[in-house]
Structure formats: structure tokens, C-alpha cells
Amino acid sequence: MLARSTYPDGRWVARISAGRDQTGRRIRNTVYAQTQAEAQARLIELQARYQSGSLAIQRCRAPTLKTYLADWLARRKGKVGARTLLRYREYGFETRPVSGRVVN
Questions:
Q1: For the chain, what are the domain ranges?
Q2: Secondary structure, 3-state, the chain
Q3: Cβ neighbours, 10 Å, residue 94
Q4: Is pTM, for the whole model, over 0.70?
């Protein structure tokens, strides 16, 4: 399946549907371009790569908060001082089990 459309900022977007994953969710690949002709060319290239099997398709899920914060802290190492890194951990930039209830 092919789809082409534009964004409000004028960019063109082209998508192909690359089947479904194990859970039944649709897998899509998307390309963006400044002009319709460029989007069409990229779409044709994407189609050819998909049909030849050279297009790597994998479902990318958003990371969990725990994973994101662990990666964020790891990227801060070497950019901030050891004490700052310690404070980040103390202030809860590392996730830990939460007990109690959520109050609205």
C-alpha cells in the first residue's frame, strides 16, 4: 500500500505498508521530502528495497521511562561532574518501585 500527503509546513510524506508484526499491528516505513517529485522518487526507491528484501523493517517502540532515564544518565556521565551525577540519582532520575497510591 502506498500513501502520499503533505504536512502543513509543506513537506511531502510517502509511506509503504510492510505487512504486520506478530501482534497484528501494521508496520510502516516513511520517507519525507521537500517536493512531490522527490517524495515520489524516494518512495520508488523504498518500494524497490522492500521488494528486494534489503529494507530492514523492525517495529520501534518508545522506550519505557526506566530505559529512557537509564540511557539519559549514562549519556550524562563524563559531561557532568560525579557529584552532579550523584544528585541526579538522589533526586529520582533513576526509577525505583513506587509504593502507595496515586492521588488526583
A1: 2-52, 62-98
A2: CEEEEECCCCCEEEEEEEEECCCCCEEEEEEEECCHHHHHHHHHHHHHHHHHCCCCCCCCCCCCHHHHHHHHHHHHECCECHHHHHHHHHCCCCCCCCCCCCCC
A3: 13
A4: no
Instruction: Give the pLDDT confidence of 9-35 residue by residue, as tens digits.
Output: 888 888 888 777 777 878 888 888 888
Closest by CA to 2, choosing from 56, 36, 40, is 40
Q: Minimal CA–CA distance to 40: which of 7, 3, 68, 9?
A: 3
* Whether 55 contacts 48, CB under 8 Å: no
Angstrom distance (rounded) from CA 31 to CA 12: 8
Q: Are 47 and 57 in contact (CB under 8 A)?
A: no
